[in-house]
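Bug report

Summary: structure tokens for cytokinin dehydrogenase differ between web form and batch submission.
Environment: batch mode, default settings.
Steps: 1) Submit the sequence below via batch. 2) Compare with the web form result.

Sequence submitted:
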Amino acid sequence: MARCLAFMLLVLISSLISTVGLPVEPPAELLQLGDVAGGGRLSVDASDVREASRDFGGLARAEPVAVFQPRGAGDVAALVRAAYGSARGFRVSARGHGHSISGQAQAPGGVVVDMSHGPGAAARAGARALPAYSSALGGHYVDVWGGELWVDVLNWTLSHGGLAPRSWTDYLYLSVGGTLSNAGISGQAFHHGPQISNVYELDVVTGKGEVVTCSEAQNPDLFFGALGGLGQFGIITRARIALERAPQRVRWIRALYSNFAEFTADQERLISLGAGGRRFDYVEGFVVAAEGLINNWRSSFFSPQNPVKLSSLKHHSGVLYCLEVTKNYDEDDAESVDQDVDALLGELNFLPGTVFTTDLPYVDFLDRVHKAELKLRAKGMWEVPHPWLNLFVPASRIADFDRGVFRGILGGRTAGAGGPILIYPMNKHKWDPRSSVVTPDEEVFYLVAFLRSAVPGAPESLEALSRQNQRILDFCAEAGIGAKQYLPNHKARHEWAEHFGGARWERFARLKAEFDPRAILAAGQGIFPPPALVSDS
């Protein structure tokens, strides 16, 4: 049976390799995967290869030789060992659910590991680890497969103990390993830190094909290196996620500002409030255009019973800023949440008459972006290019960024930005400095996210939005803003070295040499030269 499978793989892969112009003879080590215990499947099906060659960004396309569908960490390790031991070498990239922006999870001429398969697939059928409590850790946790969707983790932990992860991304249909390889941020990060600050333990398949369990106490270099490490040191196959008791409901509030200094001062004050007193549980914000706001403000945020009256804005034009906050509560605490919200709002400086409130179940709030996705899919506006730009901007320069970008490059017309512009602050002390992620050298820094969509027929073409991204990056460099890219996309080795900075870059390169010495993994990031796909001659 194994020989039959190997022969079939030889025929199929040789045919595909000949088609794409690579050496006709495939690595012999790849064929041996037919003998892997556990039944991982190596596919050269055209639809699998085509899907693995694209991502959410829609900006890059590169076909792998094959797509590997593992059933567990052992299968992933076998594949990576084959690549590591290969005379010629071949690229291996883990792909969660295809939400990278610039081809980071692609493996041109190599093998893409489809992490949506594996134990996660079986877990959806019920064979999943239950949440547990650890006195040593001081809380609950759950072990999950690296390719698991966060929305599935949420539904599982809620249904088994009313628990939920502490830190989130705004969109839940992302893989655990994918967000942990970057950071994983949302409006809870000011209090709980990013998702990488809420992980107790990992299993990582290194670039040598070794399955290594790591934590703060065990193999800490790999643990902290992999968190925010852009997939450079290994493939995360298991994560032990910190849990907390989930609230039942959310009070969701938005308020508008015309004064940027007041907007950011209020945001920074809210994230400075300690856990012992009154505070909001989520703090975000976004930039909006005053023109057309009255027609567009009523979104899915509001119900027909909650009409929006914006007559107070009739004298405002140009850029406005929206503060977005939430307060979690249980149904028994409804009266006290009203008092807390009123007290917190009473200390803010938003425009009078622009506070809008809605109330909804906790899960519905966390899954809010998915509802917007379904509407966009129905209109054919989801699977379009997304030239996103995400920046961490130091708080000391955020006013300069506002003048140079929101009111400068964008000319006060956020409608020309091609999508939402998020802006909210975070506390650096909630980020572990031992992780690989790079943030500005200030205690408070902002995420500014240009979540662009190049919709066919729209005035904002892909080329125009990409040029605007470059203008923003050029402005930051010329003005000395000190911004760092989140979900970074650099093109040259020296740009990556500058991104990390001296000592951090040296550490990053040292960890690469230790855990992935042949630069097999995550070559789509473009950080380290991948193995050349050439013949042995």
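Above is the batch result. After comparison, the two runs are identical; trailing whitespace caused the diff. The two ends are 32 Å apart (CA to CA). DSSP finds 18 helices and 18 strands in the chain.
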